[in-house]
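Intended use. Records like the one below are meant for learning the mapping from a protein sequence to its folded structure. Do not use them to infer anything beyond what is encoded.
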Amino acid sequence: MNALEVKNLTKTFDGIKAVDNASFEVPEGSVFGLIGRNGAGKTTTIRMMMNIYLPDSGEIILRGSKVGQEFKNKVGYLPEERGLYKKMKVLETLLFFAEIKGVNGKEVQNKAMQYLERFDLINRKDSKIEDLSKGNQQKIQFISTILHDPEFVILDEPFSGLDPINTNLLKEIILEKKQEGKVIILSTHLMDFAEKMCDHIAMIDHGKIILNGSIKEIKGKYSRQNISLTYEGDISFLNNHPIIEKMSDYGNTTGIKVKEPKHVQELLKLLVQNNIIVKYFNANDISLQEIFIELAGKEEDVLEKEVSNV
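Structure written out for the chain above:
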């Protein structure tokens, strides 16, 4: 069952379509990723879902009914452009945002203290927001997003500005919320995070949804004849090799697509024969990053052809 359905959303600014007829479904109890490069239309889509922007056309359906004001009351929203009252104190800020959502009292104060402890900020509870580092302000904003225990948690680029330890803590809490049955909508350009955390994704590029579905089904569809390789040595001999369709270097790993399934074993044999130290060889595996580059690249080709024909 779907918690939310986005149907044919379109939004134009100054004659440019920021979001172009976007449709996707967000299943109940899932971590859903809206992914794509910066400027692809993710934030505009989120803002239309939050009724900050009105769409030119299209609609958002919440559990069978068109979204209204009640949706905002069920949501914890972390916007891309963070906003806290600089002169307010930390604990005061958290309780203020909880009260706006109709939650107050001793229980929410205890929960706020627990989160501050967890984020190693308990000794800053009486500090002014302006006296915190940007990273710590980010943590306060995240706590304020989830403190009132919303049914939906919408996070726009939540990992921006966080160190690895706090990034892991955020991921941990997001997955805890999923276990509690919450719906998490995660907007990010970081494909690796989306791949590890999300159950379903919609991939957006130039305002258009170019891929939509469960991670498992998508990777199953695109992974045929793909190898994820980590190695030591020089594999330049594979360039223009007759069994290789495409190679993509991602730094720590290389994605290789062979022309036919039988070429997977031939590739492994070639690597061994050429004294390549194979540290990781995973056949029929492909990353979201590789899928995005494949699809967005095709999209770019189409756009270039359209321009050249004008």
